[in-house]
Amino acid sequence: MGWERELEELRRRREAALAMGGPERVQRHHEQGKLSARERIDLLADPGSFREFGILAGRASYEGDQLVAFTPKGEVNGMCEVEGRTLVVTAGDFTVRGGAATSAGAGIGSESRPAVRALEWRVPFVRLLDASGGSVASFESLGRTYLPDGNAWTASEVRLLQHVPVVSAVMGSVAGLPAVDACLAHFNVMVRDTAQLFPGGPPVVKAALGLDIAKEALGGAEIHTRGSGVVDNAATSEEDAIAQVRAFLSYLPSNVDEPAPRDDGGGLAEIAADELRAVVPENRRLPFDVHRLLAGVLDEGSLFEIAPDYGASRVTGLARVDGYPVGVMANNPAHLGGATDVAAGEKVVRLIQLCDQFHLPLVSLADEPGFLVGPEAEATGIERAGARLVWATCMSRMPWLTVVVGRLYGVAGQCHHRPSGMFRRYAWPSARWGSMHISGGASAAYRRVIEESADPEATRMEIEARLEAIASPFRTAEATGQDIIDPAETRARVVEFVHDAQRVLATQLGAPPVPYRP
Fold first, then answer.
1. Domains and CATH numbers, the chain
2. Model pTM greater than 0.90?
């Protein structure tokens, strides 16, 4: 056999790469409750399907022409299959110089970066992030500093969002450019307690602001999934995070030129159709369980909720209806009465974009009291958030079905309707609507009449009763032809719509005219 020397060197270099930062650093990583980059990929990929590329990249030391030391790059890249579908994965390896981006160079003749391969192969791209970004230690090896020009790399990551599903999982402490990469995605998730996200960590904060702060308090899951909304979902473990990545991808096509995959097994709703009649209570002051409503409409166990802890007055996510993937949103009256605040509005905009990008029908179950009012809403910019939601609604084109189960008021109610494309709306007999609530609206519209009456409170109640008498949805149906259905018919109407939507979706394959914005 020939080439023994070269094959032996190949074997040594591969072994060095597979060892990552060495046994001690890998052990230290494990002691912190974290898996290695390669263990994470093993969880993501179908067994035996991972094919690494760039395994020989790194930094080598020589004596003459003999290799004496080799440090691999701080990431593991390759292609694998998830549920039989090909994707590109990149995993930060914190055991090699903290996964710093400078741990391996690039120059003339360099092979394609992972994001470029995903773009060229038209397959999903998954980042398993555990990296510190740039490091000042690189200045010494370079012998100089450098002008920040990372967008030469990042431009491909931005283009990728317009063509294939992109997912980021924050698996450790992530700073610098990788922190931005976490958000250049259609979905992201982070692990509680062992993952943090920030542009600069505690030492940088200390230097800039003189503030001592722990990593978790600065950028842990509680901060980003409940407060900032920077991260969609929290995971209880690394295994859970990767399971969520696999689940999210299961609803989407490999790229915008393909239809979303149907679960051939189909599905049945979790609760019987006639149980929907009891979901909305006759006493309108009482909230209802929005997840029970969803359980009567969607395939059993199919709801994958996105950002459940942020903007909790809306439930948003992906699900299946008779096996077909759909986007779904519903007002949650148990939080802020279901009113749309800035956070909830941002969630909806992202869901609308996601459905439009990957050709999923959108199902809206509306009990919309309107945009949140009050000083806090004003301070957070509710009007601009409302404008963004109106814009996203009108610019979308995927098939859209709204079922009005309760209230539908004001401009926020308007955002459950689209005046173009394949749009369908049903209402339950429990529905009520208008430009604003009669309670409160009457006090504004009839303020002078009420104030000048002998008994203002009695006059206000009389006016409200008069208006309530004409608020029946059947009066609207008489004038407009609005279809009002028995709640027990809802599942059947949704299934019918989703089936009909497939013909329209087939004509919309390809990138939509409005670019996806993270």
1. 35-57+73-250 (3.90.226.10), 273-428+485-506 (3.90.226.10)
2. yes
